[in-house]
Amino acid sequence: MAKIQPDLIHSVGMPLFKMALGYTKCVNFTTIHNYVYEDYPVKYGRILGLCLANRDIRLIGKKADYMVTCSQSLANMYKDRHNIEVGFIRNGVDTERYEVPTQEEKNAKRKELGIPLDKKVLVFTGQVSSRKNQSFVVKSFTEINNPDLFLIILGDGPALSGLRELYGQNKNILFMGHVTNVADFLKASDIYVSSSTSEGLPIGALEAMSAGLPLLLSGIPQHKEIVDVEEGIGSIFVNNNFDSFKTNLSNMTQKNLVEMGKRCHRIACEVLSAKQMTSLYEKKYGLLLEKFGK
User: Where are the alpha helices (DSSP H) in 64-115?
Assistant: First the structure.
């Protein structure tokens, strides 16, 4: 570090931020990607998780000037629950990696991946875990039992084997596990779904928007923040409420998903792109360096 002599170190998350604080000759800055009291108990267990959350909330309170969250709703949670003023810069997605496929391109990709051509396809990406809560969508999808729908679960994680054991025989559910071609599955799908119980600002949903998929999301603040950017890009259901999920899914399948998807892609490019995010970070760096005389 002494050889590099940076003016600013940008760490991603609290553990790296605490490590970087050992180097005192620069501005140390971090992005908070979670609400510690929701994320840590799930990740580390209730007792250890609460201890770590208590430790980090004290540091966040002391160092808020050096921090931003990855969503406005996350910043609001720290303000409302702990009276800590933290700025925010929303997560952004590399929109140049994605485009809205034509129906012919979508069908070709489905043939390549072995996905039915004659069904509305829902896709859920991310680590398969209690926090992401895929079990709710899979169970609800099974109970709805609509032969015109098809569900893809992408990702690995501690809850995957149990879901496969319970629902692996359902021919309208595809558990893919870890894949390296998420963009191909987004291209082959019609709706992005998530029942997550806690997020920062979910990259999976932003990638889906960039690929032209409308959103069917659980009613956590971070999901509402995305859907509220512009009317007509998705729908919010009450999490862990079967009737709400069923109603919102039914309503969405009756809409013009192609036009909704085009609107999602435009919003991703205009508001939630990596370029937009980078520009805001550059401004933040400049303000911090000026403030602390670097």
Answer: 72-82, 103-113
